Amino acid sequence: MKKIISIVMAIMLLCGAVAVFASCDKKGDTLVMATNATFPPYEFKEGEDFAGIDIEIAEKIAEKLGMTLEIQDVDFGSIIDGVATGKYDMGMAGLTVTEERKQSVNFSNTYATGIQVIIVNDGSDIKSLDDIFVFDDEGNPTALKNDKLKVGVQQDTTGDIYSSSDVTEWGLNDVAEDGTTTTDRVVRFKTGAEAVEALKTGKVDMVIIDNEPAKSFVNANEGIHILEGDNEYAIEDYAICVAKDNTELLDKINAALKELQDDGTVQSIVDKYIKAN
Question: Which of 33, 175, 212, 249 has a C-alpha 20 to 30 A away from that of 219?
């Protein structure tokens, strides 16, 4: 009887070990990417499928690494923390490299350049940056021309970060020396689409968002347009974020990304979604 029990226990232990190894192998073969699929053309949904520049680049990176890409569609504001804590292997969602974010995660090499632009309603009094800021002789903003101005942004994006700073730093708020916001003119929304809807209904005076999603929103909505000419709000670099302690994965991603940039794959993906004109 003892011998039978011993055999049964050995089989159970063996099965358990096999299960553990199988689980480890499965996890090791899967690259979990956090994104926020409301940011066309970088990431969006077509029915139940993910599409966009970031999605296709991530698929190519996973292919280079011999891994299967698993995409998690989450709130934009939870991506950095999720990657930092190991919940996701990497984050890719039109993420701009900022000093604040670099305190929590590491970033890959840049794979795209983003431009933050301003969307306004047709007929708006805002025609250029000169209608928003008062500038000194050196071209630095010193005050707002309309202190009742309201700007819509997608929460936790760089549009939110930039506009939430002090007017003298190209923000839309009044910020005291101790960092306290004394006047908050930024209205935050879960998605860019919600910010645009608020613009159309007069809840905000303008929306700050990346140029490419801005084009998509303008094409899909009558009565709004992007400020043209030399009126970009900010220019920034996009990269992939990885946990600080996962330098091995970061090195692999950078190596794969370099190969994809060198052979023209990244540019062909960008060109597929963003036309030269």
Answer: 33
Tell me how far the alpha carbon of residue 141 is from its chain's centroid.
27
Class of CATH domain 114-236: alpha beta
Sequence letter at residue 197:
E
Radius of gyration of the chain (CA): 23
Q: What is the dihedral of CA 89, 58, 66, 272, to 10 degrees?
A: 180
Residue 191, CB-side half-sphere exposure with 13 Å CA sphere: 15
CATH topology of domain 29-111+239-273: D-Maltodextrin-Binding Protein; domain 2 (3.40.190)
Strands 234-238 and 112-121 come out as antiparallel
| Band (102; pLDDT cuts 50, 70, 90) | very high
Residues for the chain: how many in total? Answer: 277
**Gap between the Cα atoms of 175 and 204, Å rounded:** 20
Q: At 12, give phi and psi (nearest 5°).
A: -65, -40
- Pair of tokens at residue 24: 């480890």
User: Coil, strand, or helix at residue 148?
Assistant: coil
E-strand ranges in 3-95 read 30-35, 44-46, 49-51, 68-73, 90-91
pLDDT tens digits, residue range 73-96? Answer: 999 999 999 999 999 999 999 999
Integer Cα distance of 226 and 162 in angstroms: 18
Give 146-199 pLDDT, tens digit per residue.
Answer: 999 999 999 988 899 889 999 998 999 999 888 899 999 999 999 999 999 999
Fold identical between 29-111+239-273 and 114-236? yes
